[in-house]
Records
---
Amino acid sequence: MRTHIFASAACLLLWSFFASSCKNSGNVKPSATGARFELLVVMDDELWQAPAGQTVFELFDQDTPGLPQPEPLFKINHVKQSDFGDLLKPSRNIFYADVSPEKYTQAKIAYAKDYYSYPQCFVRVTAPSDSAFMQAITTHGKEIAEYFVVSERERTMTFNKKDLNKNAVREVQEQFGIQVDIPVDLKQSAQKDNFYWITNNSGYIRQDLVIYTYPYTDPNTFTYEYLTAKRDSVMRQNIPGEVEGSYMGTEWKYARPIMREITVNGEYAAEIRGLWKILNGGSMGGPYYSLTRLDEVNQRVVTIEGFVFAPATNKRNAIRSLEAVAHSMKLPQDMNVIGEINVTGNKKTQQPSNNNQ
């Protein structure tokens, strides 16, 4: 059901607004308010209750890909234009819709960062008619949703830089010659040859991150079949389950992994979202996200993957957080390194050990 902003939420926003204003009195714009993956839709009630509003709702309420249970892409709050005042303008994600034959002759989409607050993501769609508005959403809805998702990821990456596990960052740099912004919440690590594993080891929402590399010898490496098979091989060798003979594998029965070709720092990358489970014993499982790139300097493939174990709990934000860590990875070519990197493997431990900041 389409949601509205309640009084309690308004009070929370009011408190956050004044708190941030006092704290940052020297800033022109207030700090953005609201929770991660929360979206404020500004649209008059008549339009919101019409097919045009339903189109917007379905765009942002669609299931987040790669999760074991349905979770919406965003938590949607709706407000009509007349109620969109100073209290709500600092919201972190705003989708603003305006349909008027008097004001507009054609549909237009405008994207803006930090329009009313910082850091904020703002999209405005204007159109002369309901049909023109719906056509704009149908045609460009995917890129609009992606704009909000990427903005959330960038916020997380910026936040992580403020509180890193410096020991882990150094370990990864020394072992692989790459940079990854590993947040302080991930504390227990283990190293093997060409394999690194770190976890928060939480009993509530467990988050794990692994990095592994192998030589680049064949252009067919960056195919769906090769990357998914390679993942199973690496995980079987390096992440055993509690039952003897069990190991982490890919869950194929309920949902096939989804691969997408993207660009990172202007270069090709392959991202895969899927489900994992402990095979041959055990009942653990959950979502994973992997990002694979080519280290051009050392002619090797580098994969960084995050996976989550959180039974009976929503997992969207947890896996999105690890996705942000993956996208912080800088390979030698990203750091303008000339020549080969001296890469070492080394510490051999079966399970992650304590690695404090």
---
Amino acid sequence: MNNIIKILRKEAGLRQEDLANQLGVSRQTIIAIENNKYDPTLELAIKISIFFGKTVNDIFLYDNEEV
């Protein structure tokens, strides 16, 4: 599943470590999500969407959708 977390994070002026601290996860988790190597749990996906003020569908895209 693709996502736009890296774009949103950079627009917010956050480092990966900053976002990780805000969400209560490791920096490695953010790296893996941004690189599409890890799909977050539903709970984490919802936390991310609330943090950025977007819907889960706005942030996470199926593989056949373009970023």
